[in-house]
Amino acid sequence: MSNVHELNYLKDQVQELKDQGVYRVLPILEGANEPEVILNGKSVINLSSNNYLGFANHPRLKKAAIEAIEKYGVGSGAVRTIIGNMDIHEKLEVELAAFKREDAVMVFQSGFNCNAGAIQAITNKGDLIISDELNHASIIDGVRLSRADKAVYKHSDMADLERVLMEKRSNFENCLIITDGVFSMDGDLAKLPEIVALAEKYNCMTYVDDAHGSGVLGESGRGTVDHFKLHGRIDFTIGTLSKAIGVIGGYVAGSKVMKEWLLHRGRPLLFSTSLPPAAVGAISEAVAILTETTEYTERLWSNSRFFKAELGKLGFNTGASETPITPVIIGDEAKTVAFSKRMLELGVFVSPIIFPTVQKGTGRVRCMVTAAHTEEQLSRAVKVFEAVGKEMALI
Ligand SMILES: *Cc1c(COP(=O)(O)O)cnc(C)c1O
Predict the structure, then answer these.
(1) At residue 23, does pLDDT exceed 60?
(2) Between the CA atoms of 265, 206, 255 and 86, what dihedral angle is there, to the nearest 10 degrees?
(3) Cys bridge to 343: 224, 243, 348, 395, which one at CB 3.0-4.6 A?
(4) Do residues 48 and 351 touch, judged by C-beta distance below 8 A?
C-alpha cells in the first residue's frame, strides 16, 4: 500500500539521479585535511580542498582553539543578541577590520550565511539587484530572499552590465551590483575596477563575495579588493573563514553603519547561534599569522605557478585561471568523470566538475594547490596527470 510518508516521490527522484549517472556518494576522509590524506581507506595526494594555506590543521591554530575551549567552553550558548556574543567575538571583528583595512566587520557563522543574511537586509522592494550569471549558489539564494527586483548580466561582460544599467537603473531606488571576487570554477577574477567605475557612473552600490580571494589575493591574503587597490570603493565585501583561513565562518566588511544595520536585520545573526569559541580562537590566530608574515601566501602562489607550468608543458589546457584554482579542461562529461576516477586509482584526488555546474562540453577536473603541498608532491601528481592523459589520449 502506498503511503505519502514512504516518500515515494523522493524515492522516484533519487532513482532518476541514479539512472542519469549523477547519484553522489560522499568521499570519506580519515584524518585531517592535509596535502596527502587517507581517502576511502587509500592514501592519495589531495588536490581537492579549499584549505589554500594549510591552516586547517596548523599547530598554532589548533593550540589557539584548545586554549579558547579551556577558557570559554565548546559552545557560545546563544545567538549573539542574547549573550552568545563573547569578548573574543568582538575582538575578532576588530582584528578582521584592521586586517581588511575597512571600518567595520560583522562576523557570521559561514560565508553562506553572510549572503543569506546581508543581501536581503540591505535591499528593499523598489530596489534592483544586478548579478553576474556565474555568481555562487549562496548569492543566488541570498538574492531570492530579497524583495528587490533582479537582473543578471553575462559573465564578466561589462558591456552587458552597462546595457542592464542603461535599461533599468532609472526605474529603481537603490541598485546593488553583486559579483564573486574570484569565480570558483575557472579561477578568473571579477573585473572589479570596471565594475566599480560603472557603479559610480550609475550611482549603484557594490557587493563582492570574496570567498576564494580571502587569504589568497592581495597583500598577505587581504583579498581581491586589496589586490585591485579599491579600498573604500566597494560597499560590502564578503570573506570566508572556512576556505583559506581554514576554520569556519564568514564576515561582511565595510562601513560602521553596515555593521549597525546587520546587527538589527541580519537574520542568521539574530536567529542562529554564534561561532563556537574554538573557531573564534583559531581564526584570530590565522589573522595574526597573516599579519606577521606573507610566507604562506607566497608559497601558495609559487606552488600554483609551478603546478600550472608543469601541466602546461604536458599540453593540458588549464583555462583562464588567474588564481591558484587550476582547472584541467577535459571537455566531454563522461571522459571527465572517467579521468578523475582513473586519477584516484593512481593516487591523486581531483574532483570532476561537469554540466550543469559548468557549461556542456567544458568538463574539467579542478585542482586546488595549497601552500602546504611540497614540490615533490606536486611533481608526483603531475606524473599521474601525464600517465592518465596519455592513457586516455588527451595529450
Ligand atoms: C564557498 C563559498 C561560499 C560559502 O562559504 P562558506 O563559508 O563555506 O559557507 C560563499 N560564496 C562563495 C563565492 C563561495 O565560493
Answers:
(1) yes
(2) 50
(3) 348
(4) yes
Backbone angles phi, psi at 176, to 5 degrees: -120, 120
Q: How far apart are CA 196 and CA 205, in angstroms?
A: 9
How high is the pLDDT of residue 4?
84
pLDDT tens per residue, range 85-96: 999 999 999 999
pLDDT in tens, 94-126: 999 999 999 999 999 999 999 999 999 999 999
Cα(208)–Cα(240) distance, integer angstroms = 12
* Pick from 281, 284, 286: nearest CA to 66: 281
Q: Which pLDDT does position 1 carry in this prediction?
A: 54
Within 8 A by CB and 6+ apart from 156, the residues are: 132, 134, 183, 188, 190, 191
Quickly tell me which residue has 585542482 as its cell: 367
Q: How many CB atoms lie within 10 A of CB 110?
A: 18
Please check whether residue 290 is in contact with residue 220, taking contact to mean a CB–CB distance below 8 angstroms: yes
Whole-number Å distance between alpha carbons of 171 and 183 = 30
Q: Which of 76, 110, 184, 214 is catalytic?
A: 184
Ligand 1 neighbours (beta carbon < 6 A): 110-112, 136, 138, 180, 184, 209, 211-212, 240, 242, 250
From the list 387, 248, 344, 373, the residue with the least C-alpha distance to 38 is 344
- Taking CA atoms, 334 is separated from 46, 124, 286, 359, in Å, by 22, 44, 40, 14
What pLDDT is recorded for position 21?
76
| pLDDT at residue 169 is higher than 70 | yes
For residue 311, the model assigns a pLDDT of 97
257, with CB counted inside 10 A (0-12, 13-18, 19+), is exposed
Task: Assign 333 to helix, strand or coil.
Answer: helix
> What is the Cα–Cα distance from 355 to 327, expressed in whole angstroms?
14
The pick from 51, 109, 179, 242 for probing ligand 1's pocket by mutation, whose C-beta has the most ligand atoms within 8 angstroms, reads 242
- The one-letter code for the residue type at 156 is S
Cβ-count burial 283-313 (b if 16+ within 10 Å, e if not): bbbbbebbeeeeebbebbbebbebbbebbee
